[in-house]
Design a protein that fits this description.
Length: 782
């Protein structure tokens, strides 16, 4: 019986011990698992400031963290002087202990017992990093948790990494956190440039961050700093000279403001990538120089109450933005200076004309020097006018682009088609065309749509890349080493057409605004200006094979100002910015994408059957130019021997007869053309003997355009106004009789104009000259 009881008792004890072992094992496993996963992910759950640097790591600007702290994103690069000072002050054995220093803890305990209060914590830098990470109230239990987590942190991270985590999150007084933010706020430079005195000051701050107050505790802070410097001198870390110089440095009086370089770019990157360190493609030196240029011009333009300026400089070989000035006077909140104009849609004026010229060249629908009409026109109520309010009658396409004439551009767009051009612009990168093509109509070429400086510059870069046969046709980069999603690889334009267009743009001629030929600082640049209706927006974009410069001038409010034109404002700024850049070579001629064609010098069209051999010119043109228009302006006419009359063989009589190639423009073109080009020879009249058989177009309406829509406005006194109808006649002295809807209304001679006030609806206007020639046109009055 006793033996049986002994066996049972032993069994129960063994079972009890096994249960305890299992419990201990389970608890151990739980603790081990907790220990393994005890570190939070991420280690620090704190919002960071947005930090933007230039291509070389120089600080451009920053935006404060969401919690109102200047806490720069963590970095692994801790200044050596700060490392030395901090370890000397806080944790001399940091490199050797496993996260906890038992000797320091024991010493701290004895000091606290002797003092009867907490005078030392004995925490290592690793433990302090854990405390910063947890942000809990300081208790003995929390100290125990810190000890455990410190050892865990040491197992997962290197000493350098732990040091960097501490340096990035240590409180530095006020709303400043971390070594990098403190270096900028307190000393006005980055941590790499810290002096021994500055490094020592920042090393003692986390121990008592409240000391960094500019109105009190300065003596205490100075004493702690100098005591640390004395320790460094005693340990041989710094020399006597370094010590004397360091202790002689005064404490700062006030915090330094952070740099405000390219502030609009900093804001843009803050909105897209908050709480990160962004290394941009900006060149800080160039940015500061460009800022100075814009500030100087802004002072001049401000005298005319033109208050805003923006500019973009791009390295086209790398497709990187190297200067970004979204506006001037960022800190002035009275004049819209905080608006980033580079990203703001504005009326584009004539800045899109080169793209129409280029695409028409490459598709063969226009020859480089083809003659285009430059006369008053009205298309569905749209009546474009040239900037000079004058008309040449006819002008070569390249000259029309160089002079930025409006009427030839509208005529070209009407020929090419608004929907096609609209699609081309969207393909070229204009993202603000958010209405259908018919909404913009023909005004699209004259500023009827809005675009951003960024998009317009991107489109010009597309053309420059095409001319250079460059495969680097991606979107502009603002961030080092980051390619934008959806980057384009195929250019919108071919090399031949783009090169020809840029060649034309090197000869921009706007004498009615400013004579650029007498500006000695100009270098070879393909450039174009634009001015919106009402003188509200002034544009200028220039390209070389290496660089692009785009400038906008105006008022962010949209207020127009007299003299606010692209040539008088933005172009001058643009050339000053180009002068900051190294000179470059020019685009090589892309012969593989060009062909030689023979054109008529007068018309710019392919040589026709009646063009005289002396008018033949051989030019380079895109491959499809062989499909271009053939000259029909040269006509074979029979004239008398003295060329005073046109004759026929049966009526030449004694005047003689000979065949001649004669350059003949339509009457409405001719009316204006001969006023500017006196050498133009009008067709001679028929001789008296041959007038009965005379034929040919002798009259043409200048206004209105066929099937146009006319608006009759009211006068100041409320009476109904009149529209002035105008006619061109090859022989202005002829009398012309006018009929409105078959009702005679009067006659004209020499100057063929008639003021009419027809009722609303459709009408027919007929004119008959005294020789019996007649012409009719239909129009509609709203």
């Amino acid at each position: 019986m006793g033996k049986l009881f002994t066996v049972e008792t032993h069994g129960r004890a063994s079972l009890h011990r096994n249960r305890w072992k299992k419990t201990i094992l389970i608890i151990s496993l739980i603790l081990l698992i907790w220990y393994i996963f005890s570190l939070p992910r991420p280690l620090f759950n704190a919002p960071y400031s947005t930090l933007v640097t230039d291509r070389n790591g120089e600080l451009l600007g920053a935006r404060i963290a969401l919690d109102g702290q200047w806490r720069f994103p963590p970095t692994d690069n801790v200044p050596d002087k700060y490392k030395i000072c901090l370890m000397a002050f806080e944790d001399r054995y940091f490199r050797y202990h496993p996260g906890v220093n038992p000797l320091s803890l024991g010493r701290a305990m004895l000091q606290n017992i002797k003092s009867g209060r907490v005078v030392s914590g004995g925490s290592t830098l690793t433990m302090q990093t854990v405390r910063l990470m947890r942000k809990n109230k300081r208790t003995y239990f929390e100290k125990f948790i810190e000890i455990i987590l410190a050892t865990r942190l040491e197992l997962s991270y290197s000493k350098n990494r732990i040091f960097a985590l501490y340096a990035s999150h240590a409180p530095m007084g006020g709303n400043v956190v971390g070594i990098d933010a403190a270096a900028w706020r307190y000393f006005g430079h980055d941590g790499r440039s810290l002096s021994w005195a500055e490094a020592a000051t920042l090393a003692v701050l986390p121990n008592s961050p409240s000391l960094m107050h500019f109105g009190r505790n300065r003596d205490g802070l100075l004493t702690k700093r100098n005591r640390l410097l004395q320790r460094l001198l005693g340990s041989g870390v710094i020399s006597q000279t370094d010590y004397v110089l360091a202790t002689a440095e005064p404490l700062l009086e006030n915090p330094h403001p952070l740099p405000q370089i390219a502030p609009h770019l900093v804001t843009r990157l803050y909105l897209s990538q908050p709480g990160t360190h962004v290394q941009s493609t900006i060149d800080k030196g160039l940015q500061l120089q460009a800022d100075d240029v814009l500030a100087r011009w802004n002072r001049e333009f401000s005298q005319n109450n033109i208050l805003n300026l923006a500019a973009l400089i791009v390295d086209l070989e790398k497709n990187e933005v190297i200067s970004y000035i979204g506006n001037v006077n960022f800190n002035n909140q009275q004049s819209g200076n905080q608006v980033d104009i580079i990203q703001s849609p504005r009326s584009m004026g004539s800045i899109l004309k080169p793209f129409l010229y280029c695409v028409m060249l490459q598709e063969g629908s226009l020859l480089p020097t083809e003659l285009l009409p430059d006369i008053p026109i009205n298309v569905g109520g749209f009546s474009p006018k040239n900037f000079s309010l004058q008309y040449d009658g006819a002008v070569h396409a390249d000259e029309a682009l160089a002079r930025s004439l409006n009427v030839p551009s509208v005529v070209s767009l009407r020929r090419y088609g608004v929907p096609k051009f609209y699609d081309l612009l969207k393909k070229a990168g204009l993202t603000t065309l958010n209405r259908p093509a018919e909404y913009y109509g023909l005004s699209l070429i004259l500023g009827g749509a809005e675009g951003t400086l960024w998009d317009v510059a991107q489109a010009y870069a597309d053309m420059a890349h095409a001319a250079a046969n460059s495969a680097n046709n991606s979107d502009f980069q603002l961030i080092q080493g980051v390619n934008k999603d959806g980057a384009r690889t195929v250019s919108t334009f071919n090399a031949g057409a783009a090169w020809l267009t840029l060649e034309v743009l090197t000869n921009v001629n706007r004498p009615e605004e400013i004579d650029w030929q007498f500006i000695p600082s100009m270098r070879k640049v393909a450039w174009k200006t634009g001015t919106s209706f009402g003188f509200r927006d002034a544009w200028a974009v220039g390209v070389t094979p290496k660089y692009l410069v785009a400038v906008w001038t105006g008022n962010a409010s949209g207020e127009g100002r007299p003299g606010l034109t692209g040539a008088r404002t933005s172009a001058q700024v643009m050339f000053d910015l180009f002068n900051l850049l190294p000179p470059t070579s020019w685009f090589e001629t892309p012969y593989s994408d060009l062909t030689e064609v023979v054109v008529c010098r007068e018309s710019g069209c392919l040589m026709g059957m009646h063009c005289p051999p002396s008018s033949a010119d051989t030019i380079l043109a895109p491959i499809k130019a062989t499909q271009g228009n053939v000259c029909n302006y040269h006509q074979l006419v029979h004239v008398s021997e003295d060329e005073r009359y046109r004759v026929y063989e049966h009526c030449a009589a004694g005047r003689g007869i000979k065949a001649a190639s004669w350059f003949v423009l339509p009457p409405s073109w001719e009316w204006y053309y001969k006023q500017h080009f006196p050498v133009y020879q009008v067709l001679p009249p028929f001789s008296p003997e041959c007038r009965d058989g005379a034929s040919g177009e002798v009259m043409q309406f200048i206004y209105p355009y066929p099937n146009s829509m006319i608006k009759i406005t009211k006068q100041l006194d409320g009476s109904r106004g009149k529209a002035v109808f105008e006619l061109a006649h090859r022989n202005p002295s002829k009398r012309v009789f006018w009929y409105l809807d078959d009702e005679y209304i009067g006659e004209t001679s020499d100057v063929h104009q008639m003021g009419l006030s027809p009722d609303a609806g459709e009408h027919t206007l007929t004119v008959v000259d005294e020789g019996g020639n007649s012409l009719a046109i239909r129009f509609k009055v709203e």
